[in-house]
Amino acid sequence: MASLGKHSLDLTAAPAADDLATILEGLSGFNEADVGPADRQLLAVLIRDEDGRAIGGLSGYTAWGWLFTQMLFIPASLQGQGLAGRILSEAEDEARRRGCRGAWIDTFNPNARKAYLRQGYRIFGELEGFVGDRTRTFLKKTL
Asked: Which CATH class is domain 39-142?
């Protein structure tokens, strides 16, 4: 632990949930005062099996008029059927209902990148050599 006078720095790979909540609350308060409320709302489009269990789908949120897709997973047995596009469309429709004007997503999977481009997303940034020879691509779309 590094000392900062009355304070200290504590590097950890296992932060407590309360500690992370403190950071989120502090940053959220700062951002709200700086640019206005985020109106952050979770959003998920789930793929369920015949027993009702989630087996894949999309997880993200809307905030400041944008949809951010954090995760999108299609099980191998369902890939190649246009499901990613259908799921993105569902999420985008809900984002529009929430008043969003845009959507963004990132990936380092070349197949996912192609799927997002087919859905009308456009590249706005890249990190070459993100992992191995893979490029992490950041994409956005006007809703």
From this structure: alpha beta
